[in-house]
Amino acid sequence: MQQNSTNHEDGQPNNIVDNLEFQSVLDIQNLNDDQFQEEIQEQNNHIQESNKEQQNNLNIIHQELQKIDEQKPQPELEGEFYKVSPHFLETNSTYYCTLFSRRFTYYNIKNKEKPLGILDFDYQKYIFSYLKSKDDTYIQSFILQPEGCEKKFEFVVPTRTREQSKQWVQLIQQYIQQSNGYINNIMSLSKYYRFWRHERILDPQILAQAQTGDLLIFRTRGTLQNLQRSITRSDYDHIVMFLKNPWEDPMLFESSNQYGVISFSYKRFVKAKSYKNYEKILYKPLLNVSENNRLLMYAYAEAQIGKGYSLSMMKFFKKSTRQNFFCSELIAYIYQLMGFIPETEKCCSFLPGNFTDEDKRLDLLKSAQLGPDYIVDFYYLQ
Length: 382
Description:
By secondary structure, the chain is of the alpha+beta class. The chain is 27% helix and 25% strand. It folds into 2 domains: 206 residues, endopeptidase domain like (from Nostoc punctiforme) (endopeptidase fold (from Nostoc punctiforme), Alpha-Beta Complex); 115 residues, Roll (PH-domain like). The strands form 4 sheets. Strands 4-3-2-1-7-6-5 form a 7-stranded antiparallel β-sheet, with helices on one face. A 7-stranded mixed β-sheet has the order 8-18-13-9-10-11-12. A two-stranded antiparallel ribbon has the order 14-17.
């Protein structure tokens, strides 16, 4: 794997923007080729020695898969609460809240389709506290705090919800005590930036279901990446695409300023524990695409491997040669070749955040759709 030293396009000099682009998601320093082969053998030996433990883990994963596939029941409790803002100058806002299946969810009062917060007691252990009224007739407020982080979710009970307030508290307490998060002391989600914004998916589930065209979107740790996100006004700074064929494990396809356009094993990314470099990683499936189209997409992607990396202001003012790409430009180009993005769109105008739920820009063509954002939990079984 050779490092790509060309960081400009069509002879144009490097721009300061080049330095804002995130490097490859494959952390070679953490795991070189020899180490990778040796550690695979060690891992196989360990699996044989601890088969019982691994089987228990697989059972847990199976339960998680069943839970995701189940149709959501009607909420056991629903009502409106004031959510206390963590920001001093902001006023408390009213939210529509539901409580069912050991999960507390809150929504914008005007949009009950997309949740703003998902607190699933099976996925994360929570500390629960509440404040009673002076005459002990109702609950004034309650707090749910994910164990392992300082974030608190505080809700004040409005007058119209007081009659049900004790019922809410009793059911929350019951759900927490019965939850997988409480029983198994699970605190993995608390490691991730704003984890409550998304549904969760486990790393082994991705390995089992990832298809060509699915995406991983990254929020990287570091001052430089914070600057990049400030400039782009996005929570995310890098993106890669899955490549999958029937005879091999999923591959990650990306363009980085270290290696240009490459692909490498998703298992290798996980084994190197490269995910520790990120505050959050989102998995986003590509839906409503036929198997034949996924094969074509795979071929289009393979044809780009070996090309260079480039991020400069000149891209926005001249026609691209399609020989150099930055990360999200590459993904947009593959989607455009498939007809999912109009030919009139400039691929270099797409940034990683444009592919997430936080951005309303991307509306794919040919019936293709990007599914919801899932936060990937790599620490659940550790």
